[in-house]
């Protein structure tokens, strides 16, 4: 579903060249929940930004759902991005729109007709458990509810892949658990491939099948989660 082949990303800075991602190769299977863990500055965000085409690799190639995302541009890239949903640490909701309006937004961009949009938004609200909160604004929601809106919005156009960038890092442990349960449920129901970027071990331990450990731009280990946590 996702493959990175010898991907390197460098940035030019005053202090010289920064290698944010250093010759990374990865293959992620359809339906897999794949964790990427590492300290701040390890290169996780840069990696994710290359998965959705926000950054181009300096070297190597990135393929997502059969498309070489690192090569395509313009309207083709926008179309390819509809196959890739994303959720964020700070939710990135539209503050002037209600729950319904936020979830509807990507459908409007994709040109889905109004009646169809309404039906899809209703399904998504049910899927993430926000019935009764359709007309609330983000400022009226708890952190967990905001992330549920983020998830519903990310899934609106039926993506094949969901990228989660520190998606539970702003939430308390109990809320984190409920969001992870929801992601697990969606993975099982729809076979969605999920990439989880995090610095929190317990997030990986709870739902990931495999994990890659990043340090200084390199993947230093890839293993099934069971193996990584085998030794105390
Ligand atoms: P993480 O998400 O693991 O915290 P990042 O991918 O954000 O790591 O950053 C990896 C390295 O690349 C860091 O040293 C960071 O400062 C650098 N970096 C990231 N984006 C840029 C940029 N746009 N310009 C210059 N340096 C960057
Ligand atoms: P928390 O989940 O910690 O309560 P918030 O949801 O309040 O966090 O905020 C998440 C991010 O959105 C923050 O970066 C904050 O500055 C921004 N934000 C919060 N409220 C608004 C608003 N009404 N308009 C624009 N940005 C906002």
Automatic annotation (TrEMBL):
Top-level taxon of origin: Bacteria
Keywords: Amino-acid transport, ATP-binding, Cell membrane, Membrane, Nucleotide-binding, Translocase, Transport
Residue ranges of domain ABC transporter in the record: 2-232
GO MF assignments: ATP binding
Record protein name field: Methionine ABC transporter ATP-binding protein
Source organism (scientific name): Pallidibacillus pasinlerensis
Shown chain mapped onto the complete sequence: 1 to 232 of 341
